[in-house]
Design brief:
The protein has 254 residues and is α/β, with parallel strands linked by helices. The chain has one domain: NAD(P)-binding Rossmann-like Domain (Rossmann fold, 3-Layer(aba) Sandwich), CATH 3.40.50. 45% of the residues lie in helices and 13% in strands. It contains nine helices and seven strands; from the N terminus they run H-E-H-E-H-E-H-E-H-E-H-E-H-H-E-H. Strands 3-2-1-4-5-6-7 form a seven-stranded parallel sheet, sandwiched between helices. The protein starts with a helix and ends in a 6-residue tail after the last helix.
Length: 254
């Protein structure tokens, strides 16, 4: 590949797993990674939404993705997915875990136990199962990269955000512990806080907010690609903030 092509597609030939790939930040990540040349393994809950993503990627000539309709609360299915990735590709270069659920806003004492279990399984349990299944594949890559989407609620919990904030705080602890364990390997883990974005989850939490005042999820795509392609990311002592990355980008003059 010549230098111009390498700059346009820095992830050519890479295998990238993206969860929550059918909407919001997960979809934006899948589109950006595919545009950068990666073969995307797109995980989402519904086949129809995955096929819409496939159509979008096909519209600009990106590599055809692998579509995986999967409920991430079913841990054994994640194990099966890991085995399938190994059989087809032998390794995994990039993992972006964007799938999450808000679970509504409730006083802690009023959260239904079944809803609590679902939020914990979706936001925390799935991350554990992905690490468990995908670490061997990431280790087989030249430079495995695992990106986990978190939230400011993890460090600034407020009233009624108990289940979401607790699971995101636990996610951060889990990822930092894992990152410390794999420090001397070729795998690096990153925590990414996208901040407020024009997503369905944001609208659920703030129904009266004007979405046009918020960044489009597509804006985070280049940052995701940059992190996936970075030569070394170090340990996640601090969370990567999209707002800081955005502010540091050069302003194009017209």
């Amino acid at each position: 590949m010549n230098s111009d092509a390498s700059e346009r597609q820095p992830l050519a030939g890479k295998i990238a797993l993206v969860t929550g790939a059918t909407r919001g930040i997960g979809r934006a990540s899948a589109v950006a990674l595919a545009a950068a040349g990666a073969h995307v393994i797109a995980v989402g809950r519904t086949q129809g939404a995955l096929e819409e993503l496939d159509d979008e990627l096909n519209s600009f000539g990106a590599p055809r993705p692998t579509l995986v309709p999967l409920d991430l609360t079913e841990g054994e299915s994640i194990d099966v997915l890991g085995a399938e990735i190994f059989n087809r590709h032998g390794h995994l270069d990039i993992m972006v875990h964007a799938a999450a659920m808000l679970g509504g806003l409730w006083p802690v004492a009023h959260i239904d136990p079944r809803l609590w279990d679902k939020v914990v399984s979706t936001n925390l349990g799935s991350a554990y199962r992905l690490i468990r299944s995908m670490e061997p594949l990431l280790r087989r890559a030249e430079a495995g990269r695992a990106l986990f989407l978190t939230s400011g609620a993890a460090v600034r919990p407020t009233a009624f955000w108990g289940s979401y904030a607790a699971t995101k705080a636990a996610l951060e602890a889990l990822v930092r512990s894992w990152a410390d364990e794999i420090e001397h390997t070729n795998v690096r883990a990153v925590l990414v806080n996208p901040g407020a974005m024009r997503t369905r989850m944001r609208a659920e939490a703030f129904p009266g907010e004007d979405p046009d005042t918020l960044p489009n999820p597509a804006e985070i795509g280049p940052m995701i690609v940059g992190l996936a392609a970075a030569s070394d990311l170090g340990l996640p002592a601090s969370t990567v903030q999209f707002s800081e990355w955005r502010a540091a980008q050069p302003v194009l003059s017209i």
